[in-house]
Structure formats: C-alpha cells, structure tokens
Amino acid sequence: MKSATPSSETNRHGQKIMGQAYQVIGAIASEAGLFEHPDVQSALDYFSKNRYREDFLPFSLRPESNVNRKFETIKKSTSGDS
Q: Which pTM does this prediction carry?
C-alpha cells in the first residue's frame, strides 16, 4: 500500500515553493508600503509554516484607510491621471 505522506523530495520541493512565495509577498508588500498590514503578516505567517490550510483562500485585504489611500495613490500614478 502506498504511503499517504509525501516523499521527502516532494516535501523539500514544497518547502522551496512556500519559501519563494514568502519572499515574493514580503518584497511586494514592502515596496507597496504594506508590509505591516495585518493581512500581509497573516500571509507571511501562513507561508512560513509550510502547511496547507483549506480556508486560506480567498484572500483579500481588509479595508484600512491608510491602505486605501496608498492604493488610490498607486492607481493615480500608474493611470496617468493627475
């Protein structure tokens, strides 16, 4: 009978993917000035544990006035509107 646990090679591969996701999320959030946002921290925490959680997605930012102002600033600067 085949084991239900992933092989050590599969587990190492999954850990690398989770580590890469952690780094990408951290870098993008930092660049956007959102690194300390609780939802970003929640995502970083999730990816640091290397465990799948069925209820993690859908993931969306909770509204915070500071986050919304930054998003509006980004939208205006990238749309060319002044």
A: 0.60
d(Cα 24, Cα 57) in Å, to the nearest integer? 17
68 vs 49: CA distance, rounded Å:
29
Question: In the chain, where are the structural domains located?
Answer: 9-52+61-79
Cβ atoms within 10 A of the Cβ of 43, count?
19
pLDDT more than 90, % of the chain = 43
Report which of 25, 65, 75 is spatially closest to residue 46, judged by C-alpha positions: 25
> What amino acid occupies position 73?
T
Which range among 5-9, 21-25, 60-64 shows the weakest confidence by mean pLDDT?
A: 60-64
